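User: We ran a pulldown and think these components assemble together. Before we commit to crystallization trials, I'd like a predicted model of the whole complex to look at. Sequences follow.
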Amino acid sequence: MTKIPAISLRRLSKSFGDLDVLGEMDLDVGRGEFVSILGPSGCGKSTLLSILSGIEEATTGEITIHGTPLNESGQPFAWMPQSDALLPWRTVVDNVGLGYQVAGGLRKREAREQARFLLPAFGLEEFSRALPYQLSGGMRQRVALARTIAQGRDMLLLDEPFGALDAITRTELQLWLEQIWGVERPTVILITHDVREAVLLSDRIYVFSDRPGQIVAEFEVPLERPRTIEMLAGPQATQLELDLLRALHVGSGDTP
Amino acid sequence: MIAEGGFRQPLNRVVAPLLMIGAFVGAWEIYARNSSIGDTVLPPFSRVAQAGWADRQSLVANTLPTLREVLVGFAISVLFAFLISILLDVSPRANRAVMPLLIGSQTIPLVVLAPLFVIWFGFGFFPKILLVTLVTFFPIVVGLIDGYASSERDSVTLLRTMGAGTLTVFRLVRLPSAMPGFFTGLRIGVTYAVVAAIFAEYAGAVNGLGVYIQGASGSFRTDLVLAGVLVAATLTLVLYALTVLVQRLAIPWYTQSREVSR
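Assistant: Here's a predicted model for the assembly, 518 residues in total across the polymer chains.
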C-alpha cells in the first residue's frame, strides 16, 4: 500500500497476565475500506476492538491512525458493542441521540433534534418514541447502529452486531447495513464469526486463529458493490466461503 | 403490546385486596362478638369504628403531627441516602469503612433508642424525625447501591469510548439504572416510617398518634387504641400507594417492561 492506511497496527499484542490473548500482528485498513475479522469464539477479536476504542491498552506494539499515534488522535472510533447496550429508560430517538449528546457534546434536546433527522434512513421514524423493551431484536440493532453513526466518527468498530439475531433478520440487516455503508463509506472493522456475513459485507477479510489470536489468512472479496444476495450464490462467493472455512479449519477435525 | 387481560388488571388490583381486608375485618368482628373475651379487651371492629368516628377530631389532630414527622423524616432520609450512596459508590474504600457502621445502626433496638433520644434531644420535633430517618434510610441506601451496581457494563463502556467522564457516566447510566432499586428501598422504608414516628412519640411527645394510643391505653379504651392503630395502618398504606404511584410516573420504562414480560 502506497497511501498511508487509515488504521495501522504494528507488532500489536495483548496479554492478560500470563494469558496471551492476541499474538503479535500487523494489520492495515485503508480509508473507506470495510474490513472483517473472522475467527472462532474466544480468539481475541473483541479484545482487538477494545484496544482500538481505548478501553484496553495493548501490551506491545503501536497503532497509528492516518499516520498519527492513536493516543494523539483523539477518539477516531465509534464502537458498537456486542450487546446493543441501549438504555432502557431512553426512547429510540434519545438512545440514538446519546451519540450526539456524549460524543458530540450537544444538549439532550439538541441531540434529539439531530437524531430525528437520522431515524428515517434506519427505518425507525415510526418508532422514535418507543422504549427499547417494545422493540424486536432487529430493531434494537438498528437503533444501536444509528447511535454508532450519531457519534460522528469516521471509523466504525462493529462487534458481532447481528450475532444474536435469527438467520432471516440477520440477512436482512446485513443487506441493509451494506446500503447504509454505501452512502458515506466510512472505514469499518467488523468482528464476526459468520463466514457469509464477512463475504457479503467486506472488501477484505482477515482470518484469526484460536487464542492467542493471530492472522492466519487474508482475502480480498472479489464482488461488486452494491452487494446482493444473488452474488452469494455465484462461483466467486462460494469459492471464497470455502476458502474461508478451510482457513478456519472447519471440517478438518482440528476444531473442537 | 398490551398484555392479555390488561384491562382487568386495575380492577383486580383494587378488588382483590379489598376482599382480603373485608375477610380480615369480618373474621375479627365474628370472633370478637362470639368469644368470651370482653368488649373492653377485644372490641369488635364495628365498635372500634364507631368509637374512632366519635373521637375523630382528636384522632385527626394527632394524626397530622405524626404525618409531618414521617414526611420530613422520610425526606431527610432520602436525601441522606442519596448522598451516602454516591459516596459509597464512588469510593470502594469508603464503602468498606462506612458500611459496618450503617449496618450497626440498624441493630439498635428502637425501644432503647427512642427514650434516649427524648433524654438527649427533648420532647420536640427533632428526635422524631431523627428516629424516622434512622429507621428508613438503610433500605434506601442498599437499594441505591445495588442499583448502581446493576448498570450494564457495556453501556458504561460505551459511554467511556464516547469520551464521557465519571460524572457523565453516573448521570446518564448509573443513576437511572439505580432507580428500580431506589424505589424498592423507598417502599420498604416507607412501611417503617409511621411505626418509627409512633415509637418516638411513645417515648415522649406532646401530641401525635403515639401519644393518642398511649393515652387511650392508659384509660383502658382498647377501642380507641385500635382506632389509632387502624389510622396508622391506613396512613402507611396510603404512603405506600403514593410511592408506587410516583414510581410508575418516574420510571415507566421499568414498570411497563415488567408488566409486558410477565
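The mean pLDDT of chain B is 90. That may be worth checking against your pulldown data before setting up trials.

User: Thanks, that helps.
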